[in-house]
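subagent[fold] <- orchestrator: predict structure for attached chain, return tokens only, no commentary.
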Amino acid sequence: MKTATYASARTANAAHHSLDSGLKVAFRSGAVMGLVVVGLGLLDIALWFIVLNLFYQGEDAALVTVTTTMLTFGMGASTQALFARVGGGIYTKAADVGADLVGKVEANIPEDDPRNPATIADNVGDNVGDVAGMGADLYESYCGSILSTAALGAMAFTMSHDMQLKAVIAPMLIAAVGIFLSLLGIYLVRCKNGASMNDLLHALGRGTNVAAVFIAVFTFVILYFLRLDNWLGISFSVLSGLAAGVIIGQAAEYYTSQAYRPTRQIAESSKTGAATVIIKGIGTGMISTCVPVVTISVAILLSYLCANHFDLSMSASSVQRGLYGIGIAAVGMLSTLGITLATDAYGPIADNAGGNAEMSELGEEVRARTDALDALGNTTAATGKGFAIGSAALTGLALLASYVEEVKISMVRVADRGQEFIDEAGNTFNPSSADITTFMEFFQVNLMNPKVLIGVFIGAMAAFLFCGLTMGAVARAAQTMVEEVRRQFRTIKGILQGKATPDYGRCVAISTRSAQREMILPSLLAIVIPIIVGMVLGVAGVMGLLVGGLAAGFTLAVFMANAGGAWDNAKKLVEEGHFGGKGSECHKATVVGDTVGDPFKDTSGPSLNILIKLMSMVSIVMAGLTVACM
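subagent[fold] -> orchestrator:
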């Protein structure tokens, strides 16, 4: 946040000289967030792995115990990420909605105009929600993918301790190499002065694509020298995750960039008012889910089959190795997070640079350059959110297997104290010798079991309930903000003439109080629901809950992120002079659309991928309680 705050002023100053200078300052400042996240994440995981290995050294199944214990680290990261994402999203969008509705639509003053009392709160909110919130979000995604893959590796290669250790450290090595390749990609991002939106997109694409190609090559090298069993197949699993991330990113770019038809059509629909803008945006967001869902489905199948020698027998060994392939595909997708997150954190820096240019009256040319960088930031933000939710889908599936392993460990402990487990046929069930497929049979995890179906419905409902609560929180906070801005325009004489200074502090205080108060209930739901389902419906119900939450949450998150990004860039397109330009009726219609899209893309949508993984992490940590309630 500190770097982003300094960088926005420096970006505005750099844009005074050239577009390329502005892009470099903003992007490399965003790279600070990307590199800090991956550096701290990998450092934390490595330190915990070393410390826990010292405690459990010499024990049977030590690596399984160590890696499943490390998953609790993921619960802490997920919980903090959800608070940061939801609280940050409420903070920034309350200010943004208040500033836009009263400032642009009612008072007809430009965006980021210092006469608007909510302007400072809006600029602060960009750093709170889009820098700190997104950083915490992807820190959790990054750590979760590595931790779940390490746990699956320990389970899949139990026949050899040497091979087991290689499977555990493989995701960490791939992530480590990805950091250095992200650095290479960051320094390749540059553009010429007077660049178009397509030129700017290609400039960022050059950096991310070069990093992705190099990590694909180095993955084969790393796994070859590790001599990991079926290293070639597992390398192709990583490649499938990387490819899926690139495709999801390109799809997000297509549906949200003003350089392409979907966003242009939304802008054109403003000719008939705000209602058609909203309808068109919702439709575009819904259609945009097709490519990511199909891509993730293909990636899951390919990564599963490549890792288990294309074995469809569903034997225990085949399933465990296949799931390891899915987990390491998620690591592949996030292996270049250093540069992927840089493209995301760059957005709010460029946005605030535009605000600084407006408030400092730097001139139309500078504002035009910062607007171009800001519009690019909206597209890259949608791309970053696509990576986050895509990795959440793969990691969520891997965490299902980790949950079963944690249930097994809890059952073994209970059995060691003398308690017996009886299956449906009346036979004694021995958890210590059971594999993953045997556990599925024992707990009757199939679609004929009503407990599983109830869990699926509750999981799908949880995603919509969470979105409803966070959207409602933004609406309430924004309503308070709108009333405060109107009050100041009405009671402080001379604000609109630039003769009096607005009370910016009141608006900042409203956003702060609203974020702290409103984030509690949605965040607690993610923790409470898996615990209650586990106590009432048991392991089968929890498995259904996680599957339902994963399927509904993934699709809903993609829809909300892309719809919000498209509405925002449709407004930017009109502000460039199309369909009447700034201040026209078309502009006011797209501002309303953008206002609706704000909580879609910056509060509810991005928080869903954390919800998916937090429910999984809570289920894993509370597996012992679920077993005790059997």
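orchestrator: received. Logging for downstream: The chain has a mean pLDDT of 85. The CA atoms of residues 411 and 431 lie 6 Å apart.
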